[in-house]
Amino acid sequence: MAPLWSVYVLLTALVLLQNFKAHADDDKPLGSPFVQRAVREAIELVDKAYKETRVSQKQQLSKRSLKPSDLLRFFKHPVATTRVAVRSAEYMENTLRLIQQHVHRVHKRSLNATDLLTAADLDTIARVTGCLAIRQPPICKDDCFTDRYRTFTSVCNNRRKPRLGSSHTPFTRWLPPHYEDGFSLPLGWTPGRQVSRFPLPLVRDVSNKILRTRNEDVVNDLEVTHLFMQWGQWIDHDMSLSPHSGSIQTFNDGIDCERTCVQRNPCFPIRIPRGDTRIKNQRICLPFIRSAPACGSGELGSLFGDVNTRQQMNVLTSFIDVNEVYGSTDCLANKLRNLTNELGLLAVNEEFSDNGREYLPFNTISSNLCGRMGESCFTNENSTPCFIAGDVRVNEQLGVLTFHTVFLREHNRLARELKKMNPHWSGDTTYQEARKILGAFQQIINHRDYVPLVIGDEATMKYLSPYEGYDESIDPGIANVVATAAFRFGHLSIQPKLFRVDENYQEHPQFKSLDLHQAFFTPWRLIKEGGVDPLMRGLLGRPAKLQRQDKMLPDELREKLFELTAHLGMDLGSLNMQRSRDHGLPGYNAWRRFCGLSAPRNQGQLSSILRNRDLARRLIDLYRTPENIDVWLGAISEPFEAGGRVGPLLACLIGQQFKNLRDGDRFWWENDGVFSGSQRQALQKISMSRIICDNTRIEFLPRNAFKFRQYPQGYVHCSDIPKVDLSAWREDAQVTPCGSVPVVKHAHFSICKSSVRYTCESRFELVGGDTITCLSNGQWNQEPPGCVDPQSTGHHNIRIKVIQGGKGGCVPKGPNGKCIQSASQNDVEKVQLNEKNVKIKNAILSGKTSNG
Ligand code: HEM
Ligand SMILES: *[C@@H]1O[C@H](CO)[C@@H](O)[C@H](O)[C@H]1NC(C)=O
Ligand SMILES: *[C@@H]1O[C@H](CO)[C@@H](O)[C@H](O)[C@H]1NC(C)=O
């Protein structure tokens, strides 16, 4: 065995040497045979599980009836870019696990994997798994034009640590994770295993005993509208999405997570307690797939930092940048645009319209680039395809879909207005400027109108005192505890119904309000049942659910989540708590201490914090100690802060997060140089009500869309709601110090500081440098370029391409050779690096084959 093995290594080394002679200096020798074997085994395991998952996904999606868990998986399943990143992390994690198991077997004692690995070994593993490529720091450009707008991935927002807040990076940890085995297994993994000297209760047991609320017992919150709830989910979908593992079956033996109570990575099924409120058969489990691991964040010093402990990945950019409209990858962003003209629009539905207003496009545009899983959709007889948007959860329920639709319309409305004022702008400039304005709207409405109503007066003063400028040292990443627990506070304000009302804010005569479970994944209802307006009025004109200590989560969400047919519905409360254990979140008291709050040691102290003896008793009955209470549950149990909708712990966690998102965002709307003074003035007029007025047929509504008023008291006409005057965006081509901008036929241009950049209309090609700069002597530094028709002149394409490439400009592709997206140098390097890794990987794998 051993000799054979070394022959194989030798062979592989030879292959590698041959393949990479050119890179001999930067290719460190591959690690020990032992490490290699582990990597190879891990890659095979993961690839096999992925492949089998793919096959079974296909089968299930083609079936007519879907299980609720299919729906959750639909948006949690990693696709495209996410899949690449997740797969690398899974290779890495499985490699370390295999090494660990082996060591355990041989040495009969528990050692953690990294103790046995040299830095070079780790480097090898990272390289072969692809984690190294993912972690390579990108190079940030700083010319005026490329640095003017956010990147889609938000990479380079922070110029010192370019990945901070960007998509597909690990969540930020505010406290170290707490795993059962110290680095990877969820708390509560081993039944009966003690944490803080007590075993953890089953999450479903907690849900039954603490959260359970009958739909009809729900109490209304007469202060805030149901739209206040919907904004919460909307802003959450701007901040975080944690993907599942790419496999839905166990890695070593291929057991399907959906059909088993077997607990083995990545399956972490939710077990049913005795005397369950709904499920009588205790041998059934509610399916739960662990979130995918992420390649180490590397921000902790050494190359791989804390390589040992499992991190989770945020698929989205953390920044408040409306990524749910635009996408968090270049690929998706392009797919969502209308690139057939120079109008700067987002693509819209070409089959249906809402009384002349736009709908989102269907998710049917075929594209191999962006992956395939996400494009299939749930169809049955009277359904339409699903919609596509910048976030995969767009179809999850009709309320969030309504928001997506209205914000798409707002982008296009802005783009049309801007283009009217600035006909010299290219489609790209128009699109980016509209995107930038919509981003500011989102930040203003969120931080000025929404967050204070959530965290209350005191926390608002503490965390959102007036803006003092950008601080590069702040990590704008979404904290794991915020995505996994704190910001899920909003689940407690969801009504069991989605209301649909008419012009008089009365129950809609034709399209009655829906039980929430009838609104999950039913995009066809938007098109076939009255469009956006009845739903939007329902959000505006009806109160949110009130979070009360005795009326927590209605059955719609606890027994019927994603229940479309007679299948086993999911339980949102159980999911939240199981997820926090999966992510290794420390318990309630750890977070109380983190926030400088008292940590209750017993039932008496807990009951004085909660101001509720009965609840404290029931919590202690389950958890035995306040230390162990799942942080989401403990936090939502606290009474509200004055003027807010959460208790002190959540006010701290949510306040801190929104402060980081403001002060750590280089493109924050108030930051110097992002907008001009007059633009900032204009932007402040925005309100959610205005956006609704401009993009629906609704004419009367509450002035503040978040504050509940009983119609018609306090309702105003749209003409009474201030508008944003866009004239501050008129670009004056006459006033550069060098005089007016030279006119180039068939070209668009855009001004950035003292430079002007030209792009040609489609069909025309640029000759000369695309950018001219006004020098201090009042002269342009060079002649403006020309736009020529290649058919009529027969100009040499080659020269043109070189010029474009050299400037890092556009790479022509897409319809009619259109300039859709320039691949940055980073992308190119990343691809090259990836290709190299694939080669190394293939070499290792083929080495095995040649070995028998
Ligand atoms: C009808 C409305 C809603 C439904 C059906 C819904 C459903 C869900 C589901 C199924 C998950 C994934 C659970 C898991 O497996 O971990 C989730 C995650 C989440 N929800 Fe909701 N939710 C709704 C509204 C809200 C609201 C109002 C908020 C906040 C105010 C919110 C915040 C979040 C957050 C932060 C996550 C974690 C996202 C991630 O990082 O993956 N949700 N929600
Ligand atoms: C790994 O081992 C080292 C020393 O043996 C220890 O200090 C460290 O805490 C361990 N890490 C984990 C995550 O168990
Ligand atoms: C693109 O814009 C043009 C002009 O407004 C429109 O006719 C066309 O339907 C749009 N295409 C898509 C896919 O939105």
Task: Describe this structure as you would to a colleague.
Residues 1-24 form the signal peptide. One of its GO terms (molecular function) is peroxidase activity. Its cofactor is heme b. The protein is mainly α. Among the domains are: 328-367 and 383-475 and 675-727, Orthogonal Bundle (Myeloperoxidase, subunit C), CATH 1.10.640.10; 747-821, Complement Module, domain 1 (Ribbon), CATH 2.10.70. 39% of the residues lie in helices and 7% in strands. It contains 27 helices and 19 strands. It has a three-stranded antiparallel sheet with strand order 15-16-18, with no helix packed on it. Strand 2 and strand 3 (198-199) form a beta hairpin. The longest helix has 37 residues, at 427-463. The two termini are 12 Å apart. The model is unreliable at 1-30, 297-305, 365-377, 795-837 and 843-852 (pLDDT under 50). The structure holds protoporphyrin IX containing FE and 2-acetamido-2-deoxy-beta-D-glucopyranose (2 copies). Protoporphyrin IX containing FE binds next to helix 8 and helix 17.
**Oligomeric state, counting identical vs distinct chains:** single chain
Averaged pLDDT: 84
Largest sheet: 3 strands, antiparallel
Class per helix and strand makeup: mainly alpha
> What is the first-to-last residue Cα distance?
12 Å
Shape: globular
How many β-strand stretches? 19
Task: Output the strand order for the largest sheet.
Answer: 15-16-18
Percentage of β-strand residues: 5-15%
Keywords: Disulfide bond, Heme, Iron, Metal-binding, Oxidoreductase, Signal, Sushi
Cofactor: heme b
Organism: Chiloscyllium punctatum (Brownbanded bambooshark)
Binding site for heme b: 491
